């Protein structure tokens, strides 16, 4: 049953590169395909073109053994593969809310003319429901061996930062197929994963397409639910972190994805809920997903809230203030800055006239490519040097483990916005910091802060009176 197959993976981004390495790890012979020559070169050296924990060792091992290689040639891919996984991006349409399917279409168009023998194309990209049906027609028009070339949909649920783990040990496998034989091919691909007891759902293609966007919509809704509670907590003087903990003990609710803070970002959740709403409207089911617009709006309001808290700590204006933004990636353990809440906050503060210095342990380069007008520091110490206020925007471990007494040696003023609720408020207040969390009461210091560094945060005039470093 564990017969190795010849597999191609089309698109070597965060999803495809990990999938290709994962397929090799499962024992298959794998050819990754990308139009980006530099990426292909990097991968062929066994190196990861982006930061993803655990990916590079896999690439090294399997590129080294010859089981995994990469090419820019679709002709080679068509010749090589028994199964072709489609892993290209489906970003948000420029200037729209729907999914931009140009890369999916281009991949099918590039591959189809080279399919001269039986093959299964398995879509992994997140697409609007109905895309697989449309691609089937597109393939039929272009593939010489069409009766022998089938399409299936096999959505991917991996999380960045845990992508290798999620690929090799997924929560479930979902196969959208048009025949039992096609399901059998994919079951052969995943034989090792299935032997490990991974739940399997075999269904039709539209359902498989929907599972992915439904899952991401649910996750986004859960985050926005707790962030909506944070807004109510702010109005009522309650603490959303304790509220969330109390909710989490109800197993029907569960504690995962119930962390209030700066909200969700990344290449998936934000664009997926927008594309889903758009697709539902096209299908005449717009009412069903109206709530996802609210989910999006609650999420975006958290970014404004952080900017407001910075302004409040600065006594009313951010103009000219030095703001250290710790974090640029949309979450820790990735260098991905797509729709990053951290960078959105940094850019907004910059536009409002503050001097923003950003530091991220992995994402500085990607951030600088997107927001070249912001300043970037190589170290956290450099970013916070002389800062009027610090914003913890991405909860990297090196930020959440910061010590208030160490940090105070570096900043001009002890003011911090903990946009991810990642710090212990009382500890920072007791160390003399003006602390603001998300949906949490302002902690009051039980120990009086040292006099000379005390800064009034309620007066709008007292803010920048003290020289830096006093
Ligand atoms: C997500 C899905 O989890 C994954 O299954 C799917 O395949 C792709 O989209 P990913 O985008 O890698 O994965 O990130 P995820 O870990 O889900 O986090 C998404 C965002 O939500 C991050 O910005 C994170 O900071 C935020 N988040 C997460 C919260 O604000 N609160 C939480 O409680 C959890």
Automatic annotation (TrEMBL):
Classification via SUPFAM superfamilies: 6-phosphogluconate dehydrogenase C-terminal domain-like, NAD(P)-binding Rossmann-fold domains, UDP-glucose/GDP-mannose dehydrogenase C-terminal domain
One Pfam family named in its UniProt record: UDPG_MGDP_dh_N
This enzyme's EC code(s): 1.1.1.22
Catalytic activity: UDP-alpha-D-glucose + 2 NAD(+) + H2O = UDP-alpha-D-glucuronate + 2 NADH + 3 H(+)
Pathway: Nucleotide-sugar biosynthesis; UDP-alpha-D-glucuronate biosynthesis; UDP-alpha-D-glucuronate from UDP-alpha-D-glucose: step 1/1
Root EC class: oxidoreductase
InterPro entries reported in the protein's UniProt record: 6-PGluconate_DH-like_C_sf (IPR008927), NAD(P)-bd_dom_sf (IPR036291), UDP-Glc/GDP-Man (IPR017476), UDP-Glc/GDP-Man_DH_C (IPR014027), UDP-Glc/GDP-Man_DH_C_sf (IPR036220), UDP-Glc/GDP-Man_DH_dimer (IPR014026), UDP-Glc/GDP-Man_DH_N (IPR001732), UDPglc_DH_bac (IPR028357)
Residue span(s) of domain UDP-glucose/GDP-mannose dehydrogenase C-terminal: 324-425
Keyword list, A-Z: NAD, Oxidoreductase
Family: Belongs to the UDP-glucose/GDP-mannose dehydrogenase family.
Protein name per its UniProtKB record: UDP-glucose 6-dehydrogenase
Species this protein is from: Georgenia daeguensis
